[in-house]
Backbone:
């Protein structure tokens, strides 16, 4: 496993086998959910910029859980990249990519993972100098079959497929040579967040990280 201090030497996609993709509605959940994921062996959080509390949640995790590598996900326009960096994000992830969005993410000097969904988008990302990419929404756009096809013609591209992946399919994705890790929203489902069931989130993280004890 890698922690926040390792990000200068290790690519984001190499930090953990599953990157937790987290949507938070309540700021008070930020620190305990990060702690719960780290306790299970996943000291990385991609906190999506989908809710009003997202930037404050990134600030809280960056300040109070330094062992966790905190990133901002769902970066959809250039201004969000700078605001996420100012909030303390250590990496950025976008669901798709445009030249201006890639330029904005690059200008922050943070590691970033641009989103792609087609071969043409992968080619454009490669032309811009990006080789570590997100495939989104993975299951909808072709999933494992698409990644196999892309790998046969563009082996230099590496992916974090996200969207519709489950604990049952994660290992199959990760077995592909062009997949470094997967993104997982199943680790922090809304019902567990609402119940503040941090031990269960730790259990899910441990299963995903391969650190759960053998029965």
Residues:
């Amino acid at each position: 496993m890698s922690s926040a201090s390792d990000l200068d030497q290790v690519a984001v996609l190499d930090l953990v086998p599953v990157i937790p993709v987290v949507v938070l509605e309540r700021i008070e959940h930020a620190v305990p959910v990060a702690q719960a994921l780290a306790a299970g062996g996943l000291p990385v959080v991609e906190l999506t910029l989908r809710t009003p509390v997202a930037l404050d949640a990134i600030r809280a995790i960056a300040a109070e859980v330094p062992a966790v590598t905190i990133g901002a996900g769902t970066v959809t326009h250039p201004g969000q990249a700078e605001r996420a960096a100012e909030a303390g994000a250590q990496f950025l992830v976008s669901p798709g990519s445009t030249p201006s969005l890639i330029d904005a993410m690059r200008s922050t000097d943070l590691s970033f993972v641009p989103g792609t969904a087609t071969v043409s988008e992968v080619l454009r990302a490669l032309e811009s100098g990006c080789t570590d990419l997100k495939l989104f929404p993975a299951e909808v756009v072709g999933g494992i079959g698409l990644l196999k096809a892309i790998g046969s013609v563009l082996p230099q591209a590496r992916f974090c497929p996200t969207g519709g992946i489950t604990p049952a399919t994660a290992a199959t994705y990760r077995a592909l040579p062009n997949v470094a890790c997967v993104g997982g929203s199943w680790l922090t489902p809304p019902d567990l967040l609402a119940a503040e069931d941090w031990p269960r989130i730790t259990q899910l993280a441990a299963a995903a990280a391969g650190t759960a004890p053998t029965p």
